[in-house]
Amino acid sequence: MDPELHSRLDELQRDPYPHYARARGTDGLVHVPELDAWVVTRDADVREVLRRAEDFSSANALRPDVLPSPAALAVLGGGFGGRPVVVTADGVRHQELRAPIVRGLSPARVAAVLPYAAERAAALVDAFVKDGHVELMSGYARRLPGEVIGRIVGLDPEDVPAVVHGGHRAEELLFRPLDEDGQVAAAQDVVTMQHILDGLIRERRARPREDLATELIASLAPGDGELTLDQRHELVAHLQNLLLAGHLTTTALIGSTVLHLLRHPRQWELLCAEPERIPAAVEEAARYDTALQGFRRVTTRTVTLAGTELPEGSSVFVAFGAANRDGARHERPDEFDITREPGRHLAFGFGVHACPGAQLAREQLRVSLELLTRRLPDLRLDANHPVTMRPTMIHRSPETLHLDW
């Protein structure tokens, strides 16, 4: 990517909201060169795109911002995956891929894992509560979601750190500029993760259990014979996508929620005094600074949206984060206010591609806020460590979050 263009993209990603506001105030759609896409920013228009899946394909939903170097691609060639996944599939194939995930993240499965989530959350806080200081992203937010989704999937707890690390490295490899050595190192971490997942898949084929890995295998590769190499590639791709969605998004949501509560001390104090407000705080945090800012879509034919004609093959960025600040849907949209009546936001998508793990993410955030408000009511931002947001549109969160009490 051209250095100047990348600099502008970095600036947009660190704070997209002023750009969204300008786009919402413009007739029709706005084409943003930094994203190489038409940006859909109004709530009604975003919902229209998500309802018209036959006109706006998900095939490019995860198009990377950075093309890995040949050396990095050579390393990735020694791993698994590279197949379409639920996020990038359409129509019947999307339904087939989504079904086992919906079953695996059912309300009953989520309820069953919550005692474990609460236990692990408490243990993580126990590890730093006496210190008077914590960097919350590394000490808590990047750990709890991986352990919880790992439990649901059926990962060996000893493998969770490497899988979580591999997920962060996959995002870095495809969405951040790295030199060639950095790309190769990131690719190696991704391949390590993929081999762990392949081992899990082959072990579950031989010895099924009551977990999501077994559910995926039974649904996508029915039978009991040895898996083919192509089946292993497909299953690793799906499991990798599920795990990344299952921990990266929740990690971002935890970090951003705590950040905004502490930037509004009276609301933090209110939450500590009235913990029954936590569910509303979860919804407001998800609306106000959406972890998943948006996904790409590509038009399958010539369509008109918001008065703008888009030829077949046009790239569109569907900005959930922008829609969640649309004054036509939300009163005082740029204010963070946990006392507002929760509205119908788009933080977890909408329609056939709505996030099947939304309830699991909400519950982990609820558990986290209940724990932090109860045990660390004096929590505050460390003034010596200014907060910088990660430059990304898919898992928006603080890069680090230093807290004192």
UniProtKB/TrEMBL annotation:
Top-level taxon of origin: Bacteria
Record-linked SUPFAM superfamilies: Cytochrome P450
Keyword vocabulary terms for this entry: Heme, Iron, Metal-binding, Monooxygenase, Oxidoreductase
Molecular functions per Gene Ontology: heme binding; iron ion binding; monooxygenase activity; oxidoreductase activity, acting on paired donors, with incorporation or reduction of molecular oxygen
InterPro entries noted in UniProt: Cyt_P450 (IPR001128), Cyt_P450_CS (IPR017972), Cyt_P450_sf (IPR036396)
Family from the record: Belongs to the cytochrome P450 family.
PANTHER family assigned: CYTOCHROME P450 YJIB-RELATED, P450, PUTATIVE (EUROFUNG)-RELATED
Protein name: Cytochrome P450
Organism whose genome encodes this protein: Streptomyces albiflavescens
